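Supplementary Data S3. Sequence and C-alpha cells for construct A.
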Amino acid sequence: MAFTERSAATRTAILSAARKLLIERGYEAMTIRAVASLVGVDPSMVMRYYGSKAGLFSAAVDVDLRLAEVDRPPADRLGELLVRHFLARWEGELSDDVLIMLLRSASTNPMAAERMREVFETQIAAFVARLTGADDAAYRAGLVSTQLLGLALTRYVLRFPPMADADVETLVRDLGPAVQHYLTGGDRT
C-alpha cells in the first residue's frame, strides 16, 4: 500500500473511531488519546491530521444532508418529499449516525450547536430558498427545521413510542402537510 493510501486509511480510521466515541459516549469521552488508542496509532498522528480535539470533532460531524439528491416535485408535494428525504437520511438508505449524534450533542455542547447552525444556514436555508424562491426562505427553513428536528428528537433520541413506532408512510402523510404549509403557505405579514 502506498504512503498516501496508508495515510487516507489512517485518516478514515481516526474519523470512524471519533464518531464511534461521540455516538457511544459523547464529546467529553472523545479525547485525542482515546481515539488514537482505538485506531492503534500514537496521539501525535491524530493531532497531525486534525490539529486539535475541536478540529477532529468538526471533521467527525461533517454533515451532508444530501439535499442535492432531492428531486424537484410538483409544488404541492414539497413537504411530503422533504419529510421522506429526512426520514431516509436518518434511517433509510442515506442514513448514518452523525446526524443523531449531532442532535444529541447540540443542546449541551457549543461546538455541536454551532455545527447545527452551519448545517441550517449552508444547507437547509439554501435548499428552501432554491426550492421556493421565497423572500422569507430563511424563516420558512426555520419553521421546517422545527418540525424535522422535533421529529428526530422524539423518534431517535427520546424514543417516544408513538413517534418511534410510527411507520415512514404514516409520518410522511401526517407531517408532510405541515412542512408543505411552512414551505409554500401564505405571506407573513
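Construct B, processed identically:
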Amino acid sequence: MIDLYFWPTPNGLKLKLFMLESGIEHRLIPVNIGKGEQFEPEFLKISPNNKIPALVDHAPADGGAPLTLFESGAMLQYLAEKTGRFLPTDVRARAQTLQWLYWQVGGLGPMAGQIGHFNIYAPEKVPYAIDRYTRETHRLYGVLDRQLAGRDYIAGEYSIADMACYPWIVPHTSHGQSLEDFPELRRWFEAMAQRPAVLRTYEAAPQSYAPDTKVSEEERRVLFGQGAPQR
C-alpha cells in the first residue's frame, strides 16, 4: 500500500496520474496547502521541504520499515522501478526517459510555475517578471514541441516523462501560451487528454492557475510568505 499525500496542484496530479495508470494500491491523503497543513509536524517528517506530493511505501522491496519520499520526480522514478512500468529497462531508452523527467522537474515546472504565480497570484503586476517567465516558458514549450515531432510520446513510448509534463501544460492559457503555436505539442496534449487515467485524474480537480482564482491574504501568507523555520 502506498500513502500519497496529495493536493491537486500540477505536481500532485502527476503522482495521482501514475497511481491510476499503474493500478498500484494506494490511498490519497489530502494536505490542504491553503490552510497550512503542509507545515504540520507529522507531515514534515515525511516531506521536510513542506511541499506536496509525498509518499509512504508500506511495502518497500527490501522488506524493511515503511519508506518515505518527497520530490515528485524522485517519486515517479521510484514507483516506476517498483512496478516495472513506464520506465524502459533498455539503457538508452531509460536515459532518454529520465532526462525528460528531469527536464520537467528542473525547467518546465519551475518556469511555468513562476509565470503562473506572477499572472495569477501576485498582488501586483510586475511587467519584467511576467515578460521574463512568459518568454522562458514559451521557449520550453518549443523545446518540447520539437522533441515530439515524429513521436507519439516524449521519450518514444508512454512513460513517466509524459505523466510529469502533462499537468504543467494543462494551465497553458494562464501561462500566457497558445498551443496553436506548437502543433506537435498540441497533438500530444490532445491525445493525452483522452487517456482514461488522465480523465479520471482530472475528475472534479480544480483548475490550477485558473484566471478567476481568489486568494485571501491569509492564504497568500501561508502559500508564499514562509521563511526558514526558527530553530
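The first strand starts at residue 2 and ends at 6. The two ends are 34 Å apart (CA to CA).
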